[in-house]
Design a protein that fits this description.
The structure holds 2 protein chains of 2 kinds. By secondary structure, chain A is an alpha/beta fold. Chain A contains 14 helices and 13 strands. In chain A, strand 8, helix 11 and strand 9 form a beta-alpha-beta unit. The model of chain A has no long low-confidence stretch (mean pLDDT 92). Chain B is of the alpha/beta class. A 10-stranded mixed β-sheet of chain B has the order 5-4-6-7-1-8-12-11-9-10, sandwiched between helices. A two-stranded antiparallel sheet of chain B has the order 2-3. Chain B is globular, with a radius of gyration of 21 Å.
């Protein structure tokens, strides 16, 4: 895993346990003039060393390589001779045309706003790699090449739900016997000018904040938009029997997966949380469990006006009278919203929390919102033994995904 | 056990028409829609050709919101709606209907940024970030960012048709389109949804299309525009269906020459699909080849290895161009039109430039 709080699972988890924020002023470009100028940027200096394919796969590929290297440490795929049984399922969306492309387009624009294609074609600065890094399947397929994984490759593009959907689809590949091992997760490229601008134009980013660290405040009354973040997270999924036969440590269990579509609006959740409720219930049912057995929810918790009370409604609908007793917290309060990577990062942190007996906090809880009245593990991590948890991801476009996770101790059971 | 997923309705739009039977007749007769590209000056790419359905003759989309969702999104909407209505999916609970889409390359329309950038230029004709952020960016339509997201068109379909069940959007090559079809079939097979709307659409052909093909060393590929949607069901919902998907598989392996899947990947996909369909290679009556214009030697080697080298083949791309993520769904609708004229299953192949290969078996009910 790599996030603005660390270049490994342990670093990120310990920083979150200490309730630290990785949000700071944007450095990838000068955002002066925009209504938001902060992000959860990673320390690119600490990324895995470069690879000849980075130009083709872009920063998304490098971040995925970084996370995969950690996930596969200590010979993670060694001994698997049938590489056709290794699948790759990655959430992401490719890269968007960045400032340099717009700059070149502008240079060759006519006064009517159309571009002189001949001049554009002849411009030696027109970046060849631009096109390959923009294709959503490039980074996942290069990762498959890199790992010599010859099974199915699923490049999933469901925006903020993509990382969770990647894990869910990976679970299905295993259950249906279409793979023995799935490299599943999500990656979000390093911030670009046009990508950041896009979310600013949508009005999704926070507009008012006391400090960068205090900007992402899911469930707090003063929340007013999300903070965008960079990162990647990878899980190695395999059946219990396969993992045991290989002598691999079992870090946790992916128990169930549910997904849905809101069918409501592209940019807003259904106000009654219908899709979110459907996905959460489906994940619990898919795990063969009842809502009473869920002990914690890692929330989508974006810090937007609509998501947080709607997700609260969903938790109340799913857990009923127990809802107030089920802790819910948002990792995005500390690293921002990592979009295509969010579901994977948050699921990994959820598993780590179960194994450590720790609930990670939601920071910046200062002003209670009467529409957000659950236990959000406010401001400080909490010790609590728990073995079953949900991790929610709800995407732009209306796709919802939820994974049900079990602790390592539980994962060792037959 | 063979997969047995019924196809209960379908709709298609290609450069040769919007009726599967008619398009199939034209393809079988050797008619082609491939012609010199229209809508922009492509002379720098060596007189490029394409099978287009969107040209300037259609006129620019005046509504910025619709323009941003793109012609591919509106095509997806059209074929999905036709299929949805024909299959009467509206009778089912929305939560029990799934949506699985292979989405062609969504090129963010950076032309829509140019007016804002032009207003922020310095004397050297370069955009100045300071001026851009101080106000130039306000000239950009607020929905422009949605064009960056490959799932938005599918999200719009789920809204318009009230589809709320299991869903997946994969991008952006033909193998992604094939996987979307297969994942929809698996969802029905598992019972995660009672019916699935599966679809694939191409991206729009632009100068970037040719630039991208050139950079990939695939200039021999002739692009096309189009898409198709199909409704899948099983059990009691499928009794009146005339055709079934009976097997499907994907595999991954990149040819050393960078042309796409290697022979091994093709062979694994074909063998696994036929195994699931419980059909020997000798039973296959037609193979709809991927045959995109490069890498055919690997596909042919796999067919030979599977004992399919003497089986009659169809290459729809000669007529319709390469419709990317839309190609498998289009080929499947044309195979349905071809099925009454053959005595056994049809095998459909699709591959991607990075090495993904897929095979699908369809046969009469």
């Amino acid at each position: 895993m790599v996030t603005s709080l660390g270049s490994s699972v342990d670093e990120t988890f310990e920083a979150m346990r200490a309730a630290r924020s990785g949000v700071a002023r944007v450095t990838r470009f000068d955002p002066t003039g925009l209504h938001c100028d902060i992000a959860g940027e990673i320390d690119a200096e600490r990324l895995i060393e470069g690879h000849p394919w980075d130009a083709r796969g872009g920063s998304e590929f490098r971040l995925l390589r970084h996370a995969t290297a950690e996930a596969l440490a200590d010979g993670g795929l060694d001994g698997i001779t049938d590489r056709q049984r290794i699948a790759v399922a990655i959430g992401g969306h490719g890269r968007v045309p960045d400032r340099d492309v717009i700059q070149i387009m502008t240079r060759h624009a006519r006064e009517d706003g159309q571009v002189n294609v001949d001049a554009l074609r002849a411009d030696p600065q027109f970046d060849a790699a631009e096109f390959t890094t923009r294709s959503p399947e490039t980074a996942p397929t290069l990762l498959a090449h890199h790992l010599d994984a010859q099974g199915p490759v699923l490049p999933i593009v469901s925006a903020c739900a993509a990382g969770s959907q990647a894990m869910g689809e990976g679970l299905r590949l295993l259950r249906e016997g279409r793979a023995d091992v799935v490299i599943a997760g999500g990656g979000e490229p390093l911030l670009s000018f046009s990508y950041y601008l896009g979310f600013a134009l949508l009005g999704a980013l926070t507009r008012r904040y006391p400090s960068p660290e205090g900007a992402s405040r899911p469930f707090d009354r003063r929340r007013n938009g999300f903070v965008i973040g960079e990162g990647a997270g990878i899980m190695v999924l395999e059946t219990l029997a396969h993992a045991r036969a290989r002598g691999r440590p079992i870090l946790g269990e992916l128990l169930g997966y549910g997904d849905s579509a809101d069918g409501y609006r592209i940019t807003d959740m259904h106000p009654e949380a219908k899709g979110a409720i459907q996905a959460m219930r489906a994940a619990i049912a898919d795990a063969g469990l009842s809502p009473e057995e869920v002990q914690y929810v890692n929330a989508h918790g974006t810090s937007t006006a609509i998501n947080d009370p709607t997700e609260t409604k969903a938790c109340k609908a799913v857990f009923g009278e127990r809802a107030a007793d089920v802790p819910v917290s948002s990792n995005k309060s500390m690293i921002g919203h990592t979009i295509g990577a969010a579901g994977a990062i948050e699921a990994i942190l959820t598993m780590k929390g179960m194994n450590e007996g720790v609930l990670l906090p939601t920071i910046n809880q200062e002003a209670p919102d009467r529409k957000c009245d659950l236990d959000y593990v406010a401001n400080e991590a909490r010790l609590m033994a728990h073995d079953v948890a949900l991790s929610n991801s709800f995407g732009f476009g209306g796709q919802n995904a939820c994974v049900c996770l079990g602790s390592a101790a539980r994962g060792g059971r037959d | 056990m063979a997969l047995k997923i019924a196809i209960t309705a379908h709709a298609v739009r290609t450069a040769l028409g919007s009726d599967a039977a008619t398009v199939w007749e034209r393809v079988a007769a050797g008619t082609t829609a491939i012609a010199p590209v229209q809508g922009f000056d492509g002379s720098g790419f060596g007189k490029p050709k394409a099978a287009q359905i969107w040209t300037d003759a259609d006129g620019p989309e005046e509504d910025p919101a619709l323009r941003i969702l793109g012609p591919h999104g509106r095509l997806l909407e059209a074929v999905a709606r036709s299929t949805h209505d024909a299959a009467q999916l509206g009778r089912l609970a929305p939560e029990r209907v799934g949506l699985f889409v292979g989405m062609g390359m969504v090129d963010s329309p950076i032309h829509d940024l140019v007016p804002a950038a032009l207003a922020s230029r310095d004397g050297q004709a370069d955009m100045q970030l300071g001026a851009f952020f101080q106000g130039g960016y306000r000239a950009i339509h607020p929905l422009w960012p949605l064009s960056m997201l490959n799932n938005v068109a599918a999200g719009q379909v789920s809204i318009d048709l009230d589809i709320r069940g299991d869903n997946l959007v994969l991008a952006s090559s033909a193998d992604a389109g094939m996987r979307a079809l297969l994942e929809g079939a698996r969802s029905v097979q598992r019972g995660d949804c009672r019916a699935a709307l599966v679809a694939g659409v191409s991206g729009r052909i632009t100068p970037f299309t040719y630039k991208r093909l050139a950079l990939q060393g695939r200039s021999a590929v002739t692009p096309g525009e189009g898409g198709a949607a199909l409704a899948l069901a099983a059990g009691e919902d499928s009794e009146s269906a005339s055709a079934h998907l009976t097997g499907g598989a994907t595999a991954f392996g990149s040819a050393q020459d960078g042309s796409g899947p290697d022979a091994g990947a093709w062979q694994r996909a074909i063998e696994a699909a036929l195994l699931e369909a419980e059909r020997p290679a000798t039973a296959v009556t037609r193979v709809f080849l991927h045959a995109e214009g490069c890498g055919e030697a690997h596909e042919q080697a796999a067919l030979a290895a599977c004992g399919l080298d003497a089986t009659p083949t169809v290459v729809t791309k000669r007529a319709l161009g390469h419709t990317g993520a839309g190609a498998p769904a289009i080929d499947l609708t044309l195979a349905l039109a071809a099925l009454p004229g053959v005595a056994g299953p049809i095998l459909i192949l699709a591959g991607g430039p990075e090495g993904g290969a897929g095979a699908l078996v369809v046969e009469a009910a």
